[in-house]
């Protein structure tokens, strides 16, 4: 395996998967709600499912990117599938965040 084939998945893991998983963990498990845009330090949600949904979606997207990068490095998936999985992971986070905002919004 050439060095160029190693650098792409490595960068994807370091700059994509690890931050997604870390921020998702901080929001969903450590309850660092200020990491969500528009929330301030000390804000408490009326419904705790809203930030938990956002945090879990970040974790799932990070795991998808991590697995896609590993699959690309091992030669199990092509670059086109790598891009498709990363785009789908990003859309998943957006759709789940919008869904959570609508479902758990103030009435």
Number of helices: 3
Low-confidence stretches: none
Q: Please outline the major beta sheet.
A: none
Rg (CA only): 16 Å
Number of beta strands: 0
Strand content: under 5%
User: Helical content, roughly?
Assistant: over 70%
> Which series of helices and strands comes N to C?
HHH
Helix-and-strand structural type = mainly alpha
First-to-last CA distance: 56 Å
Overall residue-averaged pLDDT value: 89
> What would the principal axes of the Cα set say about the shape?
elongated
Give the topology.
Elements: H1 3-28, H2 49-74, H3 79-103
What labels describe this entry?
107 residues; 72% helix; elongated; mainly alpha
How would you sum up this structure, described in words?
With 107 residues, this protein is mainly alpha-helical. It is 72% helix and 0% strand. The protein has helices spanning 3-28, 49-74, 79-103. Helix 1 (3-28) packs antiparallel against helix 2 and helix 2 packs antiparallel against helix 3. The radius of gyration is 16 Å and the shape is elongated. It starts with a helix and ends with a helix. The relative contact order is 0.17. The mean pLDDT is 89.
Brief account:
This protein is an all-alpha fold and 107 residues long. The chain has three helices and no strands. Helix 1 packs antiparallel against helix 2 and helix 2 packs antiparallel against helix 3.
């Amino acid at each position: 395996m050439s060095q160029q084939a190693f650098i792409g998945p490595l960068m994807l893991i370091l700059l994509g998967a690890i931050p997604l998983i870390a921020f998702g963990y901080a929001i969903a498990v450590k309850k660092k709600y200020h990491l969500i845009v528009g929330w301030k330090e000390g804000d408490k949600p009326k419904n705790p499912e809203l930030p938990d949904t956002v945090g879990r979606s970040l974790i799932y997207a990070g795991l998808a990117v991590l697995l896609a990068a590993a699959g690309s490095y091992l030669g199990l998936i092509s670059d086109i599938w790598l891009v498709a999985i990363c785009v789908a992971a990003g859309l998943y986070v957006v759709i789940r965040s919008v869904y959570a905002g609508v479902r758990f919004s103030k009435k």
